[in-house]
Amino acid sequence: MRLALLQITSSDDPEKNLGLVSQMLHEVKAGGADFAFTPEVTNCISTSRAHQNAVLQTEENDQTLVALSELSAELGLWLSIGSLGLKTQDADGRFANRSFLVNDRGEIVSRYDKIHMFDVEVSSEETYRESDGYRPGQNAVLAETPWGKVGLTICYDVRFPHLHRALAQSGAQIITVPAAFSHVTGAAHWETLLRARAIETGCFVVAAAQTGQHAASRGQKRRTHGHSMVVAPWGKVLADAGDEPGITFVDLDLKEVDKARSRIPALTHDRPFDGP
Ligand SMILES: O=C(O)CNC(=O)[C@H](CS)NC(=O)CCC(=O)C(=O)O
């Protein structure tokens, strides 16, 4: 199975981002991949709630979702849309940060709403309150594909190992971690977190990432870490996309999942304990 990770610098203009991703998906197909992955908030990075209200749509009306699903069918590709910011029916007006898995016939086979919200003061100049704009999801999601089971997570979820463990113990062989990791925490933690999740779960971890300086023009600027990555179940980094936008192709051998798990069967060694 050949994967392709799209590393992009999403702007706050969904139409522009869609144009770029569509063009890249044609290159993905030409490169012989079966399965493409895009980062968190592929459709729009903006720090302005007013701007998001003006350009984001509900899932039913979202043009990025419609167009990318059609393109999946046209190109015969499976597609993980890392996430889309979407309007919801919630009274408080919060958006959903929702990941989609689309099959090669253009059908949505799974959707997952990010559970853990990035409410963090990275530094005195850089504070995030994701839960102000987005409402958290409440359900872990596992999807069937022709290659195996895929567990869906998003970005900050990577810091909550019990979610990944639950996905793996329910049968996941691949875990997706689409991201818009902050530049500062990315440099310190990104690779280590991804490798730890792969080693603990015996899963392939596939993490397509936003990169660079985002022209979130109507508000505070955002800089993301890049380094889209695929990690094998034994912990080896199979690909690291660096910090430039582009496509990274990776060939996976799913047999490595069983191999790693039979060498270290920790996933079956949980024991109950009291306390602390
Ligand atoms: O803001 C949006 O539009 C979409 N959401 C994101 O980009 C989110 C919340 S700001 N980013 C993260 O979760 C980064 C986590 C991270 O950097 C870490 O765990 O260190």
UniProtKB/TrEMBL annotation:
Protein name stated in the entry: Putative amidohydrolase
Xref: InterPro entries: C-N_Hydrolase, C-N_Hydrolase_sf, Nit1/2_C-N_Hydrolase, UPF0012_CS
Recorded family membership: Belongs to the carbon-nitrogen hydrolase superfamily. NIT1/NIT2 family.
Domain of life according to the entry: Bacteria
Keyword Hydrolase listed: yes
Entry-linked Pfam families: CN_hydrolase (PF00795)
Keywords: Hydrolase
Stretches assigned to coiled coil: none
Molecular functions (GO terms): hydrolase activity, acting on carbon-nitrogen (but not peptide) bonds, in linear amides
SUPFAM superfamilies in UniProt: Carbon-nitrogen hydrolase
Residue ranges of domain CN hydrolase in the record: 1-254
Hydrolase as UniProt keyword: yes
